Amino acid sequence: MKRLLVSILFMCWMPYVNAEETRTPLTEPIVIESNELFDGDGEMYTSCGHPAFILRGTGAVLEHVSVQQCEGDDVPAVQVSGLGHQLIDVSIESSGTGLLIENSYGVRVIRTLIQGNGQADGIVLLNSEASELKGVVAKEVRDGIYIENGSRHKIVRPIISHSRYGIHLMFPTDVVISVPELHHNLTGAMIMGTDRVTFQNGNVHDQFGGTATGLMLYEAVDTIIEMTHIYGNHIGLYAEQSEGTILERNAINGNDIGFQLKQASGMMILRNNLLGNREPVTMFKSSENVVQGNVWGGTTLDLNRDGYSEIPFRTDPYLFLLTDSYEAFELLYGSPGLLLLENILRSPEDVSLTDGSPQTDSAIWHWNGSIWSVGSIFLLIIIWIFGRKRHEIV
What we know:
The protein has helices at residues 2-21, 318-325, 336-344, 371-387; strands at 23-26, 30-32, 37-39, 44-47, 53-55, 61-69, 78-83, 86-93, 99-105, 108-110, 113-115, 123-126, 132-134, 137-139, 143-148, 154-156, 159-161, 165-170, 173-178, 181-183, 187-192, 195-200, 203-205, 213-218, 224-226, 229-231, 235-240, 246-248, 251-253, 257-262, 268-270, 279-284, 290-292, 313-315, 353-355. It is mainly beta. The strands form 3 sheets. It has a 21-stranded parallel sheet that branches. It has a 12-stranded parallel sheet with strand order 2-5-7-9-12-15-18-21-24-27-30-32. Strands 34-35 form a two-stranded antiparallel sheet. The chain starts with a helix and ends in a 7-residue tail after the last helix.
């Protein structure tokens, strides 16, 4: 009877396994034109030397397909151009670029999975407008999402790991990145030459390698980074030659350096939590910024119990200058000797970064009991002391 049941289960399972392993080789791309729908019903297509699918025209839809590229391919697995196309539940094993979107408007990419080999990008948007990427997962690619030029893109809930840059922006404007999960990349997100980028409600953690930077801003203008948890990196956030950046209500914890500023001006650093970093901030030529209400740790004094300290927090460019010349000195962050040198070689106020009213991080206890509760506790203690047995040791 037992052997019969095993045989029946084996016979029922075999067609399912064979269906999963079925692959359809393509000798030429499948072209999806305007208003056409291609539903692959979960089938896998393999392509060598050419894209598996090309979407062009207006309003084409590709859904429920898997694509596998031949090893060594340097062409995109899926190529898109035109207006209003949609890609839904597409899975790509790529050697070249996973998905190339160029000269397009209003393309939507939903629940797309890209597994690469580290040699090419996952999703590339070139000279496109108003694209929407939702639920993209990319792993072991060069850049998870690479955007060059264009504007009004929305990226929602991307999960990108084990790549060079999780998200790489080059010169786009008006980009919104919501709820990203970027981990175990060389850099979580590189934001360069941009205007009006918003990065919010994310987790950026555990980047690796020599730089291991959570977020990197270079020549970025009017960037907003808010309500994001940045932890476990070498540098949580690095900003250079960037203007008008707003860092608000972020938790930047457990990094070697919380954030590092170099020639970054016009910033607003408000209500961030920077506890648990070896060094909360280092800076150089970045003094013209508004810094207020952050949690830094260290000495605080809250006289009026409003949650803000009357003792300002002050950082000094001395540490940045020292480690910029000799990176090995980063190993000494937080050491008594380095803190002593910082105080002896104190920089002028006009080149330092000061939070005039940092938040306090001390706990405040409030008693919600009554006199009867206190009396009962003391009575129980007295009964326990005098009621227990005492044994004399002879």
